[in-house]
């Protein structure tokens, strides 16, 4: 797989969910010290406390196209899903990205995030693709 697949390029040029919005339940700011990528991510949780749903994810991201595209894809995959489902999705994406190319990802499970499977072969870029997912996990925990 090519590192910069068309989907990654499209999401980095026209990101979905970009721009910090209110109201939000929690916010997290993460930095990748290796390359300087940064993201401030806000999550709004809706529904009952026992089974919350991600109502919105908004973010402000600075960095490479992989980092920005990953945040955009994340937005499209998690909004409207339960927090439990989002946790499982994040784990599946992380597994794919940290597999060094051994796990191509299951498109039925991780959707458009499968476009980042090629990134797994470039360990220095894995943190770029995982930055928004880590910030989301942090924000959900804070919520």
From TrEMBL:
Q: Where is the NIF system FeS cluster assembly NifU N-terminal domain?
A: 4-128
Protein name, entry field: Fe-S cluster assembly sulfur transfer protein SufU
State the InterPro entries in the record. NIF_FeS_clus_asmbl_NifU_N
Q: What is the lineage of its organism?
A: Bacteria, Bacillati, Actinomycetota, Actinomycetes, Kineosporiales
Q: Name one Pfam family in it.
A: NifU_N
- Which gene produces this protein? sufU
């Amino acid at each position: 797989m090519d590192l910069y697949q068309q989907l990654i390029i499209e999401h980095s040029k026209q990101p979905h969910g970009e721009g910090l919005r209110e109201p939000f339940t929690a916010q997290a700011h993460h930095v990748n010290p290796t390359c300087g990528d940064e993201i401030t991510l806000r999550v709004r949780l809706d529904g009952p406390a026992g089974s919350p749903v991600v109502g919105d994810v908004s973010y402000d991201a600075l960095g490479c196209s992989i980092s920005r595209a990953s945040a955009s894809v994340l937005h499209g995959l998690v909004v409207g899903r339960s927090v439990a489902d989002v946790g499982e999705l994040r784990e599946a994406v992380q597994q794919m990205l940290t597999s060094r190319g051994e796990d191509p990802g299951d498109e039925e499970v991780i959707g458009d995030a499968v476009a980042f499977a090629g990134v797994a072969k470039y360990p220095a870029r894995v943190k770029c693709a995982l930055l928004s997912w880590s910030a989301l996990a942090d924000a959900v925990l804070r919520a």
